[in-house]
Write a structure and sequence with these properties.
disordered N terminus; 11 helices; alpha/beta; globular; about 40% helix
């Protein structure tokens, strides 16, 4: 699966600006620590270690250390980062849409306005699947099933309030039912959710496409739709929007610096990240892992977070997980 939607012209403007600003710390001199606010092996950990690998192999940082700080949908790591990284030119944090939801549902003491957005990196499609034995052959069939009995339509996905849960609520609402009635079962891992689907315990499942790609290709699961706004090369399932359902939801990941960062240090970090995502090594890594390029530089990313936070709060309020 290969898909790149590049905004790298903007990245080079950032890089050029960083050069003109003569940052105190040049990109190649950076000695970074990146907090992945989750356990090893998850999406944020993978993103942090991908940056570690490519920044060092391309010379955009001298050294990169990844530190895992799991807990409460990323909000434990966020709090630790805000308290310990103020003004630091050498500390960064990975986060994404699930953290936005966790901040709201956990009433966390800090939100993403407390940190410095550096860049949005990747945006993965969520996929809606049913077991091969399911009577639902199409997304339209599933929508009819939801209309007929919303509470008997049982969804499997990741953590409550996360991107999977949000998508199930949006689909339920699009089917004309109250999203607060969505029957959603949160599983701690994709393997448990897969077992529930194959065992006939749930109606449909939602996860990142890569999580269940093998089962989709083997025919054990039937992919009905993806939540990405556009078709993706190598994925047969079409976007919800292309099927007449006005929904898009991207499981995005981004990179942040601490609060109160000097402009010269911010410019150096922006330059290092922009040059990293420009590199052939990063493109090869995206292709190998099935990740989609969703790059946005700092200013655009900051505006995106503000609008995304409002949207996520609205969705979670409709479910009953926020006020």
């Amino acid at each position: 699966m290969t898909f790149f939607r590049s905004r790298l012209a903007a990245a080079w403007l950032v890089a050029a600006g960083a050069t003109l600003a003569a940052p105190a710390t040049m990109a190649q001199d950076l000695e970074l620590s990146i907090i992945a606010p989750a356990g090893a092996g998850g999406g944020w950990d993978s993103a942090a270690r991908a940056l570690q690998e490519v920044m060092m192999s391309t010379g955009n940082a001298r050294s990169v250390q990844v530190i895992n700080v799991p807990g409460a949908g990323g909000t434990v790591g966020l709090a630790q980062f805000v308290q310990g990284a103020a003004g630091s030119p050498n500390q960064m944090l990975v986060g994404g849409i699930t953290m936005v939801g966790a901040i709201i549902t956990n009433k966390a003491p800090y939100d993403l306005t407390a940190v410095t957005p550096i860049a949005r990196l990747t945006g993965d499609p969520l996929v809606i699947v049913v077991p091969a034995s399911s009577p639902y052959q199409t997304m339209a069939d599933l929508m009819e099933g939801i209309k007929g009995d919303v509470e008997r339509t049982i969804w499997a996905g990741g953590s409550a309030g996360g991107a999977d849960h949000m998508l199930s609520a949006l689909v339920t609402q699009a089917a004309g039912q109250d999203p607060a009635k969505v029957n959603y079962v949160a599983y701690s891992g994709g393997g448990e959710a897969l077992a529930a689907m194959l065992g006939g315990q749930v109606t449909a499942g939602i996860s990142g496409y890569g999580e269940w790609q093998g089962q989709i290709e083997s025919g054990d699961l039937r992919a009905l739709a993806i939540s990405y706004p556009e078709p993706i090369e190598g994925i047969e399932a079409q976007p919800l929007k292309a099927q007449g359902i006005d929904i898009e939801l991207v499981n995005w990941r981004g990179i942040f610096a601490g609060p109160d960062l000097a402009e010269a240090d911010k410019a150096a970090l922006e330059q290092a990240i922009a040059q990293t995502v420009q590199s052939p090594e990063w493109k090869e890594l995206l292709a190998a892992r099935g990740w989609s390029d969703y790059y946005a530089p700092s200013d655009e990313f900051t505006a995106f977070i503000a609008s995304e936070s409002e949207r996520v709060k609205s969705i979670l309020t409709s479910i009953g997980l926020a006020e």
